[in-house]
Amino acid sequence: MKLNVCERAANIDFLINVPVLKGHCQTKITCALKNMKGLIPNTEKRHFHAMGLHEPIAHLNAGLHQDFVVVDNICGDLDFEDGGNPVVMNRIWAGTDPVLIDSYVCQIMHYTTKDVPYIELAEKLGVGSTDLKNSHIVYCEENARKELPKSRKVVELQDAVEEVESCSACYGYLIPALEMLKNDGLFEKLDTKICIGQGYRGKTGKLGVGACTCKFEHNVKGCPPTENQIYDFLKQYILGENK
Ligand code: SF4
Question: Could you name the domain of life of the organism this protein comes from (predicted)?
């Protein structure tokens, strides 16, 4: 797989990765492996999504080696990568195997590595190991062992969405907009799935978010549209003002 990375990233002698542990509305978790996306140019980011996200994340990590990982688990949001609902844990972890670290993140967030396909793909490419049973983890204090609370707000909201190759920004704005509709008691009144993503370019349908669904009957304009634009449009749609 051919990927564009920032020139400077390709010439680093010793790479220290400092991800924030968070939930992610597309990949469920984001930590050591996905944080490496920060080393690709913005133009490549849309390409990543068009390629399905998981495969390119795994291949990026096969091409760019991280030497040391310091995970910030101080107060990440377990649902939305943009934050807003911090869960205070006040802890930092360190390690050298990003696959093992992300496997551990899955475990304490009540997922398996099967739920986050790029982790096992990276293992197959030789980036690291998912074998937590045979790993050596040192806890400096009891609090460090604590599991994170199980949070599945996003999974419920995702049921209303048909996503094909969506950019993180677009999808990342849609999910909190749906959460706002849920808080208003309107989410349950949606009468159709919401389509989003580059895979809808040139296609027709009923309700779509972003410029990629501009041929749809009802469309939220923008690339990406903001959270408030999506919320306002969908609210009007549900109340019958955009139908
Ligand atoms: S409309 Fe959304 S999914 Fe389409 S290219 Fe723009 S940001 Fe990406």
Answer: Bacteria
